[in-house]
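Lab notes, practical 5.
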Amino acid sequence: MAENWQFQIRITVTPELAEALRSSAASTQRDVIGAVLREGNATLKCQYDAFADYVAEAEHADREHYPLYQWTKETIENPEKKARYLNSFTVYVDGHEVYDKDSADWLQVRLSALAEEGAVGIESVSRYDTNPANNPQPPARK
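Output from the prediction step:
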C-alpha cells in the first residue's frame, strides 16, 4: 500500500519581488502571481517571516517545546541566510503549509510556467514532500 504523502511548493524570487510580496505594495508582477494563487486558493508566506514568527512564539512561550528554536534564531540572525530566506516563499493552500498531490502538481506547473517566462521575478520553484526519508532531521541541540 502506497503512503499518502503531502506536499509543499516554495518559490524563490528576486529581491525586488520579495519586497513587493512582503509589503503588499502594488506591483504588476505581484498581481500576476496573485491571480495564480487565488485560482489555486493559495497564499504565500515569506520563509524569513515564518522563521521570525517561530522564534517570537518560542520566546513568548516555553522554548523547550520548540526544538528548532536555537537553529532558527541563529538562521535569522545570520546576514547571508537572512538574505536568502527573505527571497524564499512557501505556498499555503487553504491555509495549510502541506497539501495534496493534485494541488501541488497544479501549483508547480503554473508557477514554473511563470518562472520560465522570466518576466514576473520567480527565480525557481521547488517541491517538497512529507516523506521523512526525503527530509533532513532537526539539528542536534547544543
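Observations recorded by the TA: The CA atoms of residues 22 and 46 lie 7 Å apart. The two ends are 39 Å apart (CA to CA).
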